[in-house]
């Protein structure tokens, strides 16, 4: 199937969707509104989307568009006003539409519903063609679009570098770790301190890491932990293969929210047998059957430092139990073909064999 994808700017979500569709044997045509309006260089993620085999970009010109589109994905998240300004040109050609709304849990309930109302008004002429509504950052228990259409999360995957580069893909997705083997670090944090919501969490737990050897050495005051923090202004992360190794060497991986509620880190951690530690209210965002205390740690609001202290004293038997649970998740949930298949199903795109 040829799937068309309307977006303002191709971003990490665009890559996640395009890569999963290509994995299922589909062709993806991306229409990026900004590309026709802004004279700027493509970002790294835009170049990665464009370089993905099976994906091409098309201009939003009537003479460049087909008469009929079997499936159109309208990605309103995260640039709502700009993303749907050109929606009519594609939507009137589409038989079925998957809407990725910007009215998700990244906004307060009232703001999310106001955003959904704007989307509903703009897409009203094509309402009968929208057969599912998807949310990157999850949905509120009650919302406008949820009353009208079937809804689901999108789900997420590993960072695009670990999908796009064959060497890094192999390193991240290899099932080459022993769930029963002891690990060097109790916890790690590897990432940017930005945005402010993440920095607030890091400020609460940083002293606990540093007091216990947050770095290559340490452990004088308990199990050693690894800390590598940078900022968006000076993004010096650890090299990718070292990143994979640090996940593999850690019992737990700290996964605080970033600019979105959903992040790549929980999936990456589980792929390497490290138990993700994330906000309890975000566990449902990934579509991989996360269960607090079984294959992840859900942190109650405002209790990150308390949770980290508790994990430093976790019993080896409990850690081993959860890591074995993570190992068992690989084939049904984490192995990329399985993860991509579930994502395609949520998008409403059947595999070619069916």
Poorly predicted spans: none
Radius of gyration: 21 Å
- 3D shape: globular
Q: How many extended strands?
A: 12
What is the H/E order? EHEHEEHHEHEHEHHEHEHEHEEHHHH
CATH fold-level assignment of the largest domain:
Rossmann fold
User: What is the CATH architecture assignment of the largest domain?
Assistant: 3-Layer(aba) Sandwich
Q: Which CATH C-level class of the largest domain is it? A: Alpha Beta
What's the total helix number?
A: 15
Number of domains: 2
**Major beta sheet, specifics?**
7 strands, parallel
Structural class: alpha/beta
Mean pLDDT: 93
Give the CA-CA distance, first to last residue: 12 Å
Strand percentage? 15-25%
| Order of the strands making up the biggest sheet | 3-2-1-4-5-6-7
Helix content percent band: 25-40%
Write the layout of secondary structure elements.
Layout: E1 2-7, H1 12-23, E2 27-32, H2 44-50, E3 55-57, E4 69-75, H3 80-83, H4 87-91, E5 94-101, H5 109-123, E6 130-135, H6 144-148, E7 151-153, H7 161-164, H8 166-173, E8 185-192, H9 196-211, E9 226-230, H10 240-248, E10 250-254, H11 265-271, E11 275-279, E12 297-299, H12 304-312, H13 316-328, H14 330-334, H15 336-347
Parallel strand pairs: 1-2, 1-4, 2-3, 4-5, 5-6, 6-7, 8-9, 8-10, 10-11, 11-12
Structure explained in plain terms:
- With 354 residues, the protein is of the alpha/beta class.
- The protein folds into two domains: 2-159 and 339-347, Rossmann fold, CATH 3.40.50; 176-334, Glycogen Phosphorylase B (Rossmann fold, 3-Layer(aba) Sandwich), CATH 3.40.50.2000.
- It contains 15 helices and twelve strands.
- The strands form two sheets. Strands 3-2-1-4-5-6-7 form a seven-stranded parallel β-sheet, sandwiched between helices.
- Helix 1 (12-23) packs parallel to helix 2, helix 1 (12-23) crosses helix 15 and helix 9 (196-211) packs parallel to helix 12.
- It is globular.
């Amino acid at each position: 199937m040829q799937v068309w994808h309307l977006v303002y700017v191709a971003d990490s979500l665009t890559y996640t969707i395009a890569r999963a569709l290509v994995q299922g044997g589909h062709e993806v045509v991306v229409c990026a509104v900004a590309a026709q309006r802004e004279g700027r260089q493509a970002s790294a993620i835009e170049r990665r989307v464009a370089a993905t085999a099976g994906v091409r970009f098309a201009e939003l010109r009537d003479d460049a568009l087909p008469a009929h589109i079997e499936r159109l994905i309208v990605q309103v998240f995260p640039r709502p006003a700009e993303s749907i300004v050109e929606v009519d040109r594609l939507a009137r050609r589409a038989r079925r539409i998957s809407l990725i709304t910007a009215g998700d849990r990244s906004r307060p309930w009232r703001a999310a519903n106001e955003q959904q109302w704007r989307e509903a008004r703009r897409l009203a002429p094509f309402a009968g063609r929208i057969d599912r509504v998807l949310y990157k950052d999850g949905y509120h228990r009650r919302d406008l679009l949820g009353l009208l259409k079937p809804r689901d999360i999108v789900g997420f995957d590993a960072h695009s570098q670990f999908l796009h580069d064959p060497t890094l893909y192999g390193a991240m997705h290899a099932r080459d770790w022993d769930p029963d083997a002891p690990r060097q670090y109790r916890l790690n944090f590897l990432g940017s301190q930005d945005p402010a919501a993440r920095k607030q969490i890091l400020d609460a737990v940083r002293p606990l890491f540093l007091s216990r050897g947050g770095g290559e050495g340490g452990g004088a005051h308990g199990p050693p932990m690894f800390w590598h923090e940078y900022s968006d202004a000076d993004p010096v992360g650890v090299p990718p293969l070292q990143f994979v190794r640090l996940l593999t060497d850690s019992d737990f991986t700290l996964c605080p929210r970033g600019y979105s509620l959903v992040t790549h880190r929980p999936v990456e951690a589980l792929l390497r047998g490290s138990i993700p530690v994330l906000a309890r209210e975000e566990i449902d965002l990934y579509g991989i059957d996360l269960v607090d205390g079984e294959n992840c740690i859900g942190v109650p609001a405002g209790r990150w430092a308390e949770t980290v202290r508790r994990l430093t004293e976790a019993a080896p038997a409990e850690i081993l139990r959860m890591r074995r649970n993570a190992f068992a998740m690989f084939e049904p949930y984490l192995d990329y073909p399985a993860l991509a298949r579930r994502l395609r199903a949520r998008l409403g795109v059947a595999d070619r064999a069916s």
